Amino acid sequence: MHHLVRYVLLLLTLGLVACGAISSGGDSSKDPDTNPQKPVDPQELHYPNVDAEVFSVSCYRCHSHLFGVTRGGVALDSYAEASFNAARIYQAAIVEKRMPLGGMLTVRQYELLKAWLEAGAPAFEARVAPDALAD
73-80, long-range: CB within 8 Å, 24+ apart, which pairs? Predict the structure, then answer.
């Protein structure tokens, strides 16, 4: 009987940890999905980063030459096509929040994509002048 009680308590604890009711003690401010107020770093606003974190994870199944699917005539697996369709992407994913179909972007993906599009959909990482680092 004693073992059964310990087993039930262990299962309850594991269930609470899995649901997030008990913290593992980690700093949740480092997790962008639990800290949506954290601004996206300007150094992150470049196509390879957005492609890796947003497009390849959430969009390629419908918008990729690699997978042979370009729904709506939109492919996102090249910078040229993603930047050409930036206004359409902004409208569908940011304003209307209807993309991706059958799912949602995480808070981190949404904020990164929004910031990238609002920055003009830069191709490459912005360079910080050495003088700016001295501040």
Answer: 76/51, 77/51, 79/47, 79/51, 79/123
Residue 78 near residue 3, CB atoms below 8 Å: no
Q: Render pLDDT for 41-84 as a digit per residue (tens, 0 to 9).
A: 888 899 999 999 999 999 999 999 988 999 999 999 999 999 99
Q: Evaluate the CA torsion angle 103, 74, 118, 44 in order and state its sign.
A: positive
- Grouping H, G, I as helix, E, B as strand and the rest as coil, residue 134 is coil
Neighbours of 71 (CB within 10 A): 13
* Beta carbons of 60 and 71 less than 8 angstroms apart: no
Q: Is the pTM of this model over 0.85?
A: no
One-letter amino acid at 76 equals L
